[in-house]
Amino acid sequence: AAEQAARIKKLQEQEKRQKVEFRKRMEQEVSQFIQATGEPRRRFQPMNKIERSILHDVAEVAGLTSFSFGDDEDSRYVMVFKKEFAPSDEELDAYRRGEEWDPARAEERRRLRELAAQQEEAERDSGPAPPGPPNDYKDKYRHLIGSDAAKAAARTMEANKAYGCVPVANKRDTRSIEEAMNEIRAKKRLRQAEDE
C-alpha cells in the first residue's frame, strides 16, 4: 500500500510538472502570436480537455479570444483570435461545421439569404391572404351567449369604487382587540363550566 501511494504521488507530481511546462510553452506561443502582426488568428494542434482549458486560460489572461472546435474529444482544437479580429457568428459557424472561413463565400451566402427573404416578402405581399377559419366561434355559440351579450354586460357592469374600504357606518364593533379577546375567553370559560 505504501509503494502504491508513493507511485501515485510520483505520478501526480509528474502530471503537475507536465501541466506547468505545457502552460509555459503555451504562454510563449501566445506571446509570439501577439507579436506577429500579420496573423489575425492561430490554430493550435488537437489537444485533450485539460490542455485546452490551460490554453483558454492563457489566452484570456493575454486579452485574446479563444474557441474550441472539433467533433470528438481526440480531434478538438483551439483557435485564438486577436481582439481586433474577433470572429463573427458566421465565421464561428463555419469553423464548427469543420469548414475553412472564406469571407467572399460568406458575403455571397448573406446576399443570397437577403434576396430569398425579399422574394418571400414580395410573395407574401402579392399573394392571396392566408385562409382563416371558415366561421367565427361566436356563431357556433350564438344560441348560448346571444348576439350582443358581452357588449351589454360590459356596459352595465361597474366597478365598486370603495373596493376594500369599509365605511364607518358599517363598523358596528368599536371594541379594541383586547376587549374582544377577553369576551371570547369569557364565553369559552362559561361553556366549559356548563359542560362540567
UniProtKB/TrEMBL annotation:
GO terms for molecular function: nucleic acid binding. Residues 20-83 form the R3H domain. InterPro entries: R3H_dom, R3H_dom_sf, R3H_sperm-antigen, SPAG7. Residues 93-114 have a biased composition (Basic and acidic residues). Residues 92-140 are annotated as: Disordered. It comes from the Eukaryota. SUPFAM superfamilies: R3H domain (SSF82708). PANTHER family: SPERM ASSOCIATED ANTIGEN 7 (PTHR13498), SPERM-ASSOCIATED ANTIGEN 7 (PTHR13498:SF3). This is SPAG7 protein. It comes from Drymodes brunneopygia. The gene is Spag7.
